[in-house]
Predict the 3D structure of the following.
Amino acid sequence: MTEFALIEISFTLNGTPQTRSVAPFALLIDFLRDDLTLKGTKRSCDVQVCGACTVLVDSLPVSSCTSLAADIDGKSVITIEGLAQSGVLSPVQQAFVDHAAMQCGFCTPGMVLATTALLESHPHPTEQEIRHYLRGNICRCTGYIKILEAVKSLV
Ligand code: FES
Ligand code: FES
């Protein structure tokens, strides 16, 4: 059995400072889902194709299935669990609800977080820019139209 040293990392998770020890090869998705029991981050393709595992690292969307947990040291991480404040949905979450922009919901955390990042960096995107930005988030159910309507309602 190979021995390895755990790496201590300090980061902010959904606004709360944390210090944890992780294996050098631990994936961010496993760290979030298994160690921190944040199951809102979804696993699907495992190869950075579907966007279901998207989280925000320093406000940028990242595929947690292909990111190392050790790399969040010193950074701020937002998962879907961190968007609502005091039980109030974020504007993006509320827009998705209002426009019925989900069916099974499996893609929704990643879609909502990617949309959040888009609107933070670019508050008034065109429809083409929205489509382009969300191209890495795949939805099997909705046909994307409701999602597009939800995002456009926020612009
Ligand atoms: S599970 Fe990470 S991109 Fe699909
Ligand atoms: S709502 Fe089912 S995958 Fe998007």
